[in-house]
Amino acid sequence: MTYNKSINRYFLLATGPLLGLLIALLISGTGIDWQREPDLLAPNIEITSTTTQVAKSLDQARVNAETTTSAIQNSTELYHKTTATMSTILKTAQTTASRPETIYNRRITSKLGSPFGTLQSDKVRIELYKINPGTYKGYAMKVKLKSPDAMKMTLGKDKLGGAETTLQAVNRYGAVAGINAGGFADSKGKRYPLSTTMLNGKYLTGFEPTFKDLFFVGMNKTGQLVGGKFQSQAALDKLNPSFGASFVPILMQNGVRTALPLKWQVSPLRAPRTVIGNYKDDQLIILVVDGYDEKGGSGATLAELQNKLFNMGVQDAYNLDGGGSSSLIFNGKVINSPSDGQLRPVPTHFLFFK
């Protein structure tokens, strides 16, 4: 037996049992299941369905977001247009509402001429004019109070019985303008306000019923001129006065010239004067007339001032202390020519603030 035959016999014997097993399986009909493991990369139907639904939801969300964004943009544009329209309507309404006031103010100003001094702030508007009808010379100061605290009354040196010039009061309080106020009486070297006087809503020496031709004039708590003759404190309190002083006589009431007391028609006939009044729109008008002295030969008569005020359309007007007391301060300067040659110290002043 050769070497090759020995090897062939060996493999035949080794593979014989296996071949026999295969033959036996084929004869018996038993099949071999060669099924492979599931393909892990094959698509899963359930996962695919969920993914599709999520994608659809995201698409719908995007559509909704775009719709919402568009709605917001439209609403914003509508808001801006509405706001702009309302602003235009408001401005038009304000202009329309202020037109009568503007027309009325022009009518007032046309009778005064051109101002040679003006001051404007959030609290007050002041215009200064010259008046010279031929028989006297003086000044008119038109004041628009935009705030009640733009005008105050002060006591000389801040005490009862004290006195100081209007310029001193203006400088001490930091005011922009000022005039002398009510009358006074001297006693034991002190200068006291005449009759009923109020400061900061309080009576300084109590209420005194009107006697002879005295009046009270001042401002109420809303910044309106109030005044007249009062027989009871209750009658004056109804006007809610904040401050005020007394003197004589009343010149105008409700646009009508009042009857002047005989004494004040001739004594003095002419004099330096200080007058305060108001228009229908509550603007104030102040007249300060120059004169050489208090002897009655220079300045204005009260009748002349009545006519001037009437022609200017003034509603109410009151004659304040005059003569050497007449003072007009504007922007830190003395505007009038005091008849004493210098300003007289007085107990009360009306001051204006910006």
Automatic annotation (TrEMBL):
This is Phosphodiester glycosidase domain-containing protein. Residues 173-353 form the Phosphodiester glycosidase domain. It comes from the Bacteria. InterPro entries: NAGPA.
